[in-house]
Design goal:
177 residues, 6-stranded antiparallel β-sheet, globular
């Protein structure tokens, strides 16, 4: 059985929450995805998107999104937005530019704050030129236990040497007290 919380209802990041950077992913599926990325690098700074075969992590695909880097990181566009991500956010964002994203009606974040948070995370991957693992609290629904969103962001080239896409995966987990 999986160790993530069902996200059949939309959730939003707590607007007052701080993002915590993690040395390594805590969720086993995210750790396995990072290991796959490391293996595919084969001594290069980043693997190429063509090196990744979705069947290698089929069970994770609902949790995966792929963002295309536009104009060196001035903006980003979702090329893929998994079903579980759509469930969490309330939107299928496939094809959407970050600069055009709208916050969900239930979200406590404004459109601008949401766009900035997503873009900042992607730009951090570009600046680090490597993986980024993070967690942040999600807003509670009713009287549920505290939850955290765990994410892993992985850079890829797209036929060249520059980062052209960033693959991300997200899981909602019970908060470790």
């Amino acid at each position: 059985m999986s160790s993530f919380i069902s996200t059949r209802i939309t959730r939003s990041v707590d607007p007052d929450a701080k993002v915590t950077l993690l040395d390594r992913p805590k969720h086993p599926a995210l750790a396995a995805l990072l290991a796959c990325w490391e293996e595919k690098r084969r001594g290069r700074p980043f693997p190429d998107r063509a090196d990744i075969r979705p069947e290698e992590f089929r069970r994770m695909l609902p949790h995966v999104g792929i963002a295309e880097v536009l104009d060196g990181g001035a903006d980003f566009r979702f090329r893929l937005f998994g079903a579980e991500l759509s469930s969490i956010t309330g939107f299928d964002r496939t094809g959407e530019k970050f600069s055009e994203m709208k916050a969900a009606s239930h979200s406590k974040l404004t459109d601008k704050v949401m766009q900035e948070r997503w873009s900042e995370a992607m730009r951090a991957v570009l600046l680090l030129a490597g993986p980024l693992s993070l967690k942040t609290p999600v807003a509670r629904v009713g009287d549920e236990e505290p939850l955290d969103m765990h994410a892993l962001l992985l850079p890829f080239t797209t036929g060249g040497e520059e980062i052209g896409q960033i693959l991300g995966a997200v899981f909602i987990l019970p908060r470790e007290e």
